[in-house]
Automatic annotation (TrEMBL):
SUPFAM superfamilies, A to Z: CheY-like (SSF52172)
Pfam families the UniProt entry points to: Response_reg
Family matches, as CDD domains: REC_CheY4-like
SMART domains assigned to the protein according to its UniProt record, in alphabetical order: REC (SM00448)
PANTHER family attached to this UniProt entry: CHEMOTAXIS TWO-COMPONENT RESPONSE REGULATOR, STRESS RESPONSE REGULATOR PROTEIN 1
PROSITE patterns the record matches: RESPONSE_REGULATORY
Residue ranges of every copy of the Response regulatory domain listed in the record: 4-120
Highest taxon listed in the record's lineage: Bacteria
BP GO annotations: phosphorelay signal transduction system
Keywords on record: Phosphoprotein
Protein known as: Response regulator
Organism: Methyloradius palustris
Amino acid sequence: MAKTIMVVDDSISLRQVVGIALEGAGYEVIEAEDGQDALRKLTGQKIHLIISDVNMPNMNGIEFVKAAKQLPAYKFTPVIMLTTESGEDKKVQGQAAGAKAWVVKPFQPAQLLNAVSKLILP
């Protein structure tokens, strides 16, 4: 059975690129356009991994990860932040919120898939 990954980014083109890479590697993808949209889509179904941007309208990635980690079904769901932010302070905020990995844009799909495979439990 395919593992499900949620991709949260306000850029449609980025969601498409990430989605194509993930689906090509055999994952199912749920897309969300910002943190609020992502929270609405976290309805208790099994999500094996969340990939989230940091800078988004309505609710940014750090706020979203903090909120998602408050939901019992997603407390232990691994999170990769996929962002243009490379500053140490943002990384610390992301880790504090619960992010397990930090991938800086622009990225290579192989680099992202490598991080995904390390975090998704069999």
